[in-house]
Design goal:
The complex is a heterodimer of chains A (179) and B (592). Chain A folds into 2 domains: 10-90, ACT domain (Alpha-Beta Plaits); 93-163, ACT-like. Chain A, domain 2 (Alpha-Beta Plaits). In chain A, strand 2 (41-46) and strand 3 (53-63) form a beta hairpin. Chain A starts with a helix and ends in a 13-residue tail after the last strand. Chain A has helices spanning 2-5, 24-35, 64-75, 106-118, 139-149, and strands spanning 9-19, 41-46, 53-63, 80-85, 92-103, 122-127, 130-137, 154-159, 163-166. Chain A has 179 residues and is of the alpha+beta class. By secondary structure, chain B is an alpha/beta fold. In chain B, the strands form 4 sheets. Chain B has a 6-stranded parallel β-sheet with strand order 3-2-4-5-7-6, with helices on both faces. The longest helix of chain B is centred in the middle third of the chain and has 16 residues, at 346-361. Chain B starts with 5 loop residues before the first strand and ends with a helix. Classes of the chains: A alpha+beta (179), B alpha/beta (592). The interface between A and B is medium-sized, with 24 and 28 residues. Bound molecules: flavin-adenine dinucleotide, thiamine diphosphate (TPP) and magnesium ion (MG). The site of thiamine diphosphate has 19 residues of chain B, from helix 16 and helix 19.
Chain lengths: 179, 592
């Protein structure tokens, strides 16, 4: 397949629906470390009322051949129900949340608050010498915000990693993981 | 208290095993699994074979599985019992062998406390298994056992571990029948008809076709090999097998080119190199097979049948992927081939066969055996004689091997006409595989002739299993090609490391004849050519286990050889064969 001769790398946002059992996260992570795949972001949480299924969202990058491998390797894990490459299968939304602590006083403190407002970050904790901002958005937006805070007293960051869904009426259960 | 529908976990376990059709368990006891041994003691339907080391149990289960098509079953204790089993599990994973391994574990309330003989078995075995389970609730036990067997044998087969805390084995648990379907694991086995049509179109138009069939054809069951034969007959196309696929195409078929790859035949490798259409079936484009990837069969359009999507486009991009069971896909392909009246290009195919015949004339496996009494035995000749002398035994013959030169010579000079009669450690290349694997084969086929073709170094890695052979009167034959070297290592040192034979000499070897005798077996020795036939004959006609120590030429190398990092058309040929030697590149030097 011509696509596989192409050596350019791309980023892929992949969602995986898994049986919520012990060991599945270790298997997924072991797959990435054991086979040397990149892993830029990974989130996991139960998504069904009865807690039977969890959704893993991960961001990885590689050539078309490597990404196809990653999906095939995930798909053959026993506890995996479905693998969906959101990047490839159509438009999707990916969001991430971060808590950002800024310790500053005076002009820097005021400036950080001003920037936070433009980014629609919320102040979720405040003392006279510090803020904790909560910001939600694309990973790029979070990166930009955190970058701007660097000169303004940025002292600690906690990010969730991305959550992602396909746009429109498509769902992971209606999407087919390609063979 | 056990009630009608609740029994101690160990009883539930055995009941589930019986319901899965288990007849034999290869195991070794210890504190954590004593409740299971109690349950075994009280019944007769499942036979327990007591091995001498847990690693031997897994290889035995592999041999049992590969020779029967059933799931092999292993039982070991916690901690060291489980860790000893790890090499065998990794071996079964690499070679797609269905095995269920029951491991004991400390009681649930002690897990994580560094309790006596505790090991994180699911953690340690995760990358060495297809799947593993830790049973934490009695009510899960029966379901997990059934599921483990389903997972081990379905799709691409592989090893599955069930870790069993001791309290789970003791406390009463309910029984559950095997579920009809699995919620998430349902591998696709039926081929996509559109892909079959594309494949047939490519094959019909082929001018220089080759069929490259691997272990997946064996995994699929004997029917797949039968259909492969029919497809070969219908198309007249040349066929090559991987090390793992030997026996899927009869070696006696005139269209069989022999094994391909690093130690494959000249004709098989050049046919792969020069083909215009390749049909890969149940083969995974392993590096021992492809050589340098960017030089691998560059001019061909490729069809790939494999049950595991991840085997497709992993190393080599293919044009027509077919995700399916090999047997079902070959059935569909054969039917579609017959239904399609498009004529093949007879002129081109005739020219292709003429080319192949020219390559065959190279006679790449030629060797010279001096027949003068006192002459040293060539390892190739020893295997050739073993093959010839087993032809008319009137017995089913199964061959296992250890790992090294002898393994490759066995693949080259012992010819297989049927699947499931050849067991070797291909993917992991585990020295010490052959003897326990032969033991497992013999347990499954008590009346068959089971021979482990061994090297003197490998055989020492699981030599303790001679004790198991004696205990169960398993008449396995160990045929040692004794070159007093780790020959394969010596060969690489000769060809790639300037003849610096660092630590590859087999010093201080035991007297294999006495060793055999001390294990209640027969020991035989041949040191020169005139003794060979008599030793083989005596070995084959003995009704007990035999170790035949065959002193062979210490300097012999295994050819043809495609050095690591070289291309299929850059083979090193033996001295008996005229050829153009290939140099090893710097990049190749770093490869294994
Ligand atoms: C010292 C040494 C030298 C070696 N030299 C060579 C050599 O010269 N040539 C050589 O060929 N090998 C050689 N090997 C072996 C090599 O390392 C590989 O083990 C072997 O090539 C793999 O064989 P395979 O491609 O048939 O795949 P296997 O490992 O047998 O894998 C089977 C494939 O079939 C698929 N499959 C499984 N079940 C089914 C099914 N039901 N239907 C369809 N597909 C299925 C699997 O997904 C997998 O892709 C050597 C090994 C050693 C130790
Ligand atoms: C467990 C293990 N350790 C090391 C190796 C590396 N290795 C491959 S072949 C070989 C030598 C085998 O020697 P022998 O059994 O005498 O066979 P020969 O090559 O001489 O026929 C070694 C050490 C291996 N394959 N497996
Ligand atoms: Mg040797």
């Amino acid at each position: 397949m011509s696509g596989y001769q192409d050596n350019t790398t791309r980023t892929a946002t992949i969602s995986v629906l898994v049986e919520n059992e012990a060991g599945i996260l270790a298997r997924v992570i072991g797959l990435f470390t054991g086979r040397g795949y990149n892993i830029d972001s990974l989130t996991v949480a139960p998504v069904e009322a009865d807690g039977a299924l969890s959704r893993i969202n991960l961001v990885t990058s590689g050539t078309a051949m490597v990404i196809a491998q990653i999906k095939a390797q995930l798909d053959r894990l026993v506890q995996v129900h479905r693998v969906s490459d959101l990047t490839e299968e159509g438009p999707h939304i990916a969001r991430e949340m971060a808590l950002v602590k800024v310790i500053a006083t005076g002009e820097k403190r005021v400036e950080s608050l001003r920037i936070a407002e433009t980014f629609r970050a919320r102040v979720v904790d405040t003392t006279t010498g510090s803020f904790v901002f909560e910001i939600t958005g694309t990973s790029d937006k979070l990166d930009a915000f955190i970058d701007l805070m660097r000169d303004l007293g940025l002292s600690e960051v906690s990010r969730t990693g991305i959550a992602a869904l396909a746009r429109g009426a498509r769902t992971i259960s209606s999407l087919h993981s390609e063979h | 208290m056990p009630t009608a529908d609740r029994q101690p976990g160990a009883e539930i376990l055995l009941r589930a095993l019986r319901d899965q059709g288990v007849e034999v368990i290869f195991g070794y006891p210890g504190g954590a699994v004593l409740p299971i041994y109690d349950a075994i003691f009280n019944q007769n339907s499942i036979r327990h074979i007591l091995v001498r080391q847990e690693g031997g149990a897994v290889h035995a289960a592999e041999g049992y599985a590969r020779s029967t098509g059933k799931v092999g079953v292993v039982l070991v204790t916690s901690g060291p019992g489980a860790t000893n089993a790890v090499t065998g599990l990794a071996d079964a994973l690499m070679d797609s062998i269905p095995v269920v391994c029951l491991t004991g574990q400390v009681p649930t309330h002690l897990i994580g406390n560094d309790a006596f003989q505790e090991a994180d078995t699911t953690g340690i075995t995760r990358p060495a298994t297809k799947h593993n389970y830790l049973v934490k609730r009695p009510e899960d036990l029966a379901r997990v056992v059934h599921e483990a067997f389903y997972v081990a044998r379905t799709g691409r087969p592989g090893p599955v571990v069930i870790d069993l805390p001791k309290d789970i084995l003791i406390n009463p648990a309910p029984y559950a029948e095997a579920a009809k379907t699995h919620t998430s694991y349902r591998p696709r086995t039926d081929p996509d008809p559109a892909q079959i049509r594309k494949a047939v179109a490519l094959l019909k138009a082929a001018k220089r076709p080759v069929i490259y069939a691997g272990g997946g054809v064996i995994n699929s069951g004997p029917h797949a090999s039968e259909t492969l034969r029919s497809l070969i007959a219908a198309t007249g196309f040349p066929v090559t097998n991987t090390l793992m696929g030997l026996g899927s195409c009869p070696a006696s078929d005139p269209r069989f080119l022999g094994m391909l790859g690093m130690h494959g035949t000249y004709e098989a490798n050049l046919a792969m190199h020069g083909c215009d259409v390749m049909l890969a079936v149940g083969a995974r484009f392993d590096d021992r097979v492809t050589g340098r990837l960017n030089a691998f069969s560059q001019g061909s359009r490729k069809i790939h049948i494999d049950i595991d999507t991840s085997s497709i486009n992993k190393n080599v991009p293919v044009e027509v992927p077919i995700v399916a069971d090999a047997g079902k896909a070959l059935d569909a392909l054969l039917a579609a081939w017959k239904a399609d009246s498009t004529p093949v290009d007879t002129t081109a195919l005739t020219a292709w066969w003429r080319q192949i015949d020219i390559w065959r004339e190279k006679n790449c496996l030629a060797f010279h055996q001096d027949m003068t009494p006192g002459a040293i035995i060539k390892p190739q000749y020893a295997i050739q004689r073993l093959f010839e002398m087993t032809r008319n035994l009137g017995k089913d013959v199964f061959i296992t091997t250890e790992v090294g030169q002898h393994q490759m010579w066995a693949a080259q000079y012992f010819h297989f006409d049927r699947p499931n009669h050849w067991m070797t450690s291909g993917g992991l290349g585990t020295m010490g595989y052959g003897l326990p694997a032969a033991m497992g084969v013999q347990v499954a086929h008590p009346d068959a002739m089971v021979i482990d073709i061994a090297g003197e170094a490998s055989i020492l890695m699981n030599i303790q299993e001679m004790g198991t052979l004696a205990q169960y009167r398993l008449p396995v034959k160990v045929f040692i090609l004794n070159n007093e070297y780790m020959g394969m290592v010596r060969q690489w040192q000769e060809l790639l490391h300037g003849g610096r034979y660092s630590e590859s000499y087999s010093a201080a070897l035991p007297d294999f004849v006495k060793l055999a005798e001390s294990f209640h077996a027969k020991g035989l020795r041949a040191t020169s050519i005139e003794q060979l036939d008599a030793v083989i004959l005596e070995m084959l006609t003995s009704d007990i286990a035999v170790v035949a120590d065959i002193a062979v030429d210490q300097k012999e190398n295994c050819f043809p050889m495609i050095p690591s990092g070289a291309a299929h058309n850059e083979m090193i040929l033996g001295t008996e064969v005229e050829g153009d030697a290939a140099a090893v590149s710097d990049q190749g030097f770093a490869l294994v």
